[in-house]
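Illustration 12: Isoleucine--tRNA ligase, mitochondrial.
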Amino acid sequence: MSLALTRLVAPPKGTSGSPFPWSKAPTTIATQRMRWSPRRHLPHVALTLADAFPRTSNPFTTSSAAYQTQSTGAKKYNKTLLLPKTDFPLRAKRLPNQAEITKKLVASLYQWQQENMSDPPFILHDGPPYANGDLHIGHALNRILKDIINRYQVLRGRKVTYIPGWDCHGLPIELKTLESLKHKKQGDLDPLTIRRQARQMALKTLECQKKDLEAWGILADWNVFYKTLDLDYEIRQLRVFQTMAQKGYIYRRTRPVYWSPSSRSALAEAELQYNENHQSRSIYVRFPLEVSRAELLDVLPRGAQDVFALVWTTTPWTLPANKAIAVNRDLEYALFHLIHPDHPLADPHAVYLATVDRLDSLQDLLGPKTQVQVVARVPGSTLVGNTYRNYFTDEPCPIIAAPHVTNASGTGLVHTAPGHGMEDYEVCTKLGIPVYAPVNDSGQFTTEVGPELAGKIVLADGSQAVVDILHRENLLLHEATYVHSYPYDWRTKKPVIQRATPQWFANLQSIQQTAADAVDDIVAVPQSSKSRLQNYVLGRKEWCISRQRAWGVPIPVLYETGTDQPLFSSESIEHIIQTLKEHGTDAWWSLPAEMFLPLGMRDNGKSYRKGSDTMDVWFDSGTSWTLLESLRGTPHGVAPHGYLADVYLEGSDQHRGWFQSSLLTSVAVHGKSPFRKLITHGFTLDEAGRKMSKSVGNVVDPNVVVNGGKNLQKQPAYGVDVLRLWVASTEYTKDMVIGDHMLAQISDTLRKFRNTARFMLGNLDSQLPRLLKEYEIVSPVDRYALYELSRFIERATAAYDEFAFNKVFQELTHFTNAFLSSFYFDVTKDRLYADAPTSPRRISTVLTLHHILQGYTQVMAPLVIHLAEDIYQHHARLLGETSLSTFCRSWPEIQTQWAMDPSDEQQWRSLLQVRDQVMLVLEQARKLKTIGRSLDADVVLCVTGLPIMEPLPRELLGLGLESLAEVFIVSDVTLVSDTGHWQTLSCSALAISNPFPIALSDNQDLKVQVAVHRAKAHKCPRCWRMCSPTSDKLCTRCEVVVRELEQATSETSAT
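Figure caption equivalent — predicted structure in token form:
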């Protein structure tokens, strides 16, 4: 059976446009022969794209070295082949006008989409990074993830509003300021000097970071950004404070807070990190009781002269502030002697107290030479009301009942210092026990504790001094090193203490459930972010919002001289905010206090001072949603769904930081979350999974990745797209690794993408606009390719919509390698290179390549902006397009004619299943060295399981007989269903497969077997297919094409 190639122009009547034009005309002939063979007929065209385009050669050159190795007769046909031709570079190069290209892809594109895209806008709100130091790989990860989202939304036709921001206040910048001024203590400088220098430092750092972000291609108008030091931002922040105060959420009290001696400031829980290997001094101390209750006196043994409460603590430095010992009323306590021949505290006249359940642990602690001898047992309620003496204050202190006392550790008698612990504070406050915290801002004992301890650092020599005193006074029973988790200042990496100081707080108890419920209504990626954020919110009763630093937004409160009572009224706060709005926040330190008093309060006979506290920087950044409120009625618009932002995206540490502070302040003011979707990413690690550290030398600098290091051999300049593609390739919701090996792999993948696009561009030409108007895609292989393109776009779209960019990366890689490179390009190269320019089937493939390239470019565009733009500019030139950028195109539309009905899908699945087996058998023959390339082979397929006279399945014949050899990339295909014939043909086979089942659309149980033979025909000197009658003659197809080309050339010469 022989069908002319022109039969592919249009399907016969009655086939309804099926991609299998002859599928409705089955044959009953037992054997069908095909005698032409498309394939990789050029030596430089290999099975995979990596082989096709080796780095050392240019596969698009018409004078390829591969052709030069052929006979003189073959050389003369080189110019008659339509080899790929394009000026699209094989490797990305930094162009002289790179800055102009970056501007076009960033600021110009941002302006274009703001002007041309329709409302409602898509708003991704930028969490402000700290304006301190250079950008690191974590910053690159964060901003590139945001940029991928924004660019995808532009392609989907949304007007994107993205305003970059910076967090400019706070301790790190202030500490750097002090260092730059060669002063170590804040008190050495006045606040205005610190503020001026800190502002300059923050702005300088911001400009450097902004320059890098723009170079990385982050889509934004980089002339429009917000800073937490801007006056309008600070005033909006103060308005949030004002609203929360009016609702009763803000108050001041003296209670224990986390205090950082290294920062000389209070810290919120969000500013702590825990050192799991912190070493503390674990001591057991005895306090002498003054027994007053009869119930206890009655059970004391005869001869008992002293009764001691035995207390365990890991903070010896807090003992001078001890005000009570807490017990549990419901626990059983033992009175016991310590028996030891040499221990000075093992006095037979001394009685100790501890819970019965802790005696075994105490015995283990003291060792086998010491015996614990119980003399009586009493309930905890018997102990309550008695007193004891604290050596450091020499005053009677009460034994109190507290529910937090347990048998889990210690002795069941808990040292209680209300100035240095929140549980201690709460239980003592209820009983009227005063707060006492004799420690200053630097973490030193004050003079209140006496000269022996005054001035000593509580976490260093102060703690040792307390232990020495206890030992000297025979109050120390046992001492050891205790390794445990302990809070540290996350900025200075130094341990913190708990210390009672007057601070301003936000009451969270009344809003925390509303905030937790608001999280239920949002979308979170990953889903676990919801519960994590809710746990943080529900775990906080209040938020310490005051800080004892100069560089920040002042808390707008005056204090009455003498009484130190705060002036905290709606009128006073409003007047202060208006004054700061007029004069700037520096005026809080430059203007006299009277200027901040409302007029009606200036003559009331009282004098006031300004407070020196500034707001927690998390309150600064947590009110950044007010920026989005201010956009209402502007071109930036507002999101349509009631939320201020479509997306908040930051690292997982921001659950306790920016995510939480933004949620709490928004709920406090508006009763709802400011964000609709919450996306969280992990942290970056080196390739060994270790945290990056300069001391270890494993830090990956994003600018070195982009621009290269000092030694370009070791640290090549990969460019922005490799950095972006690495981000896209990661499972960013978890911790990610990056290093030289991974970057090299990503670079190779990007090169494959580039070469894939280059092949497609090389096969397009300037006639493309006319071809798109005048021709249709009719080749079954091309129509199958469009079906695969539609599936690729569908899957990529779903992945983008789910923010699963690693799945987009996987889809791109699979489509490139498994379909385009390994199948479609191989199958169609013969028609592209060797068919006549006017060949309908060649034109069909050219049009298909156009559609594939368009979809391929748009899908990759949010990930690799420079490659996509480069592809687009070359493609647009062929199409005559003049758009600003590939991002001005819409997202690829899946055309209805690309669809495929289920039976046709099944045909292709079965056919490709057979193709896979053919490739395996061909590889067997290659290993046996009986053939070289696949075109050296003829293939026989034996189909078994068919009833007598049943037609061969359309899965094998549906493409048309000639196309099977093209799909299998062999010279000849023979189909047989007669076992006798098969036995005859298989006897001379070079390699044979085992029978394998194929799935058919009508559920028939058929098996196929593959045999490979050496091709019988000769190689055509032009197309290299094994289809010529003799080695020096052209095949029929090439003969016709060459004749047409010669005729066209002579006609051109004649004119």
